[in-house]
Amino acid sequence: MNFAFSANAFRKYSLIDTIEILSDLGYEGIEIMADIPHAYPPDLNDRDIDAILATLDRCRMQISNINAFMLWAEGDTWHPSWIEADGRQRQKRIDHTLRCIELAARLGAPSISTEPGGPLEGMPVETGLRIFREGLEAVESLARAKEVKVLIEPEPDLLIERSDQFLRFIDGLDPRVFGLNFDIGHFYCVNEDPAALVSALQGHTCHYHLEDISADRVHHHLIPGMGAIDLPAVLGEINQLDYQGFVTVELYPYEDNPVETARKAMAYLRALYPVLSPVPSLVSPHEKSGKNAGLAPAYAAA
């Protein structure tokens, strides 16, 4: 089990700076946000790709996953979704996913994560499930050819929220192409026990998102240790599986203070796993230099 941090908390930083900061803090991996201002595929050129790869190599960082869920470049966190009533909007989600598969292949990322359909907004569930499956079929051949897994991430208030819904939906999809992005907090929000689900879903899980949630189970990501989830139990279950992939801390609500947030999350993880590298107590060189002021450009020179 390895630990990464999701770049979607660092929207006020460049991607290059984010990689360097997370490496400084002791993370082994980064989940790259395939959206503005980081790695929205239509905005990337060969030089950008080379800069990302060079920085990852220099910092000895791996990509845990490409986050293809958010799409602020064309809408918001959930829109355009896989199940929009307007077929032209659904096609935008399909096209974005195809571009993200290509990006993952170029960067050597093992997977992309995507929304579980989207908000129903009055659409019958069966209609949403049918349209979602049709959308996934449109990206299946490219994902198979590029050997990039497409991971569905159940989320509260979207088409697929619970583990049983996911299992019914995934049945019949090619397991070489499609899998699960297991978000620990999301399952807790819908009154499931994520620790109990680890073994039940292990055949589909290719990546984990880690955050805490308050006792009221409202969907708001909290720094690990600040909520009510028994995270040591969940991580213990994952560890029992001898899972070799990444658990990625996802704390996008903290974009006003992501460096300190990532530092606190790593301190929590290191308390559980002392073999992790020490958490720096000094201010990061990036904080000293003021590179985090405002919305930084997406890329810096390699």
Short description:
By secondary structure, this protein is an alpha/beta fold. It contains 10 helices and 8 strands.
- How far is it from the N-terminal to the C-terminal residue, by CA? 29 Å
Count of alpha/pi helices: 10
How many domains would you count in the coordinates? 1
Largest sheet: 8 strands, parallel, barrel
Q: Which whole number gives the mean pLDDT?
A: 91
Beta strand %: 5-15%
Radius of gyration: 18 Å
What is the CATH fold-level name?
Answer: TIM Barrel
Secondary-structure-derived class: alpha/beta
Annotated CATH homologous superfamily: Divalent-metal-dependent TIM barrel enzymes
CATH class: Alpha Beta
Model description:
The protein is an alpha/beta fold. It has a single domain (2-289), classed as Divalent-metal-dependent TIM barrel enzymes (TIM Barrel). It has helices at residues 15-24, 46-59, 87-107, 125-146, 163-170, 184-189, 194-200, 231-240, 258-272, 285-289; strands at 2-6, 29-33, 62-67, 111-114, 149-152, 178-183, 205-210, 246-249. Strands 1-2-3-4-5-6-7-8 form an 8-stranded parallel β-barrel. Strand 2 (29-33), helix 2 (46-59) and strand 3 (62-67) form a beta-alpha-beta unit. The radius of gyration is 18 Å and the shape is globular.
List the helices and strands and how they pair.
Layout: E1 2-6, H1 15-24, E2 29-33, H2 46-59, E3 62-67, H3 87-107, E4 111-114, H4 125-146, E5 149-152, H5 163-170, E6 178-183, H6 184-189, H7 194-200, E7 205-210, H8 231-240, E8 246-249, H9 258-272, H10 285-289
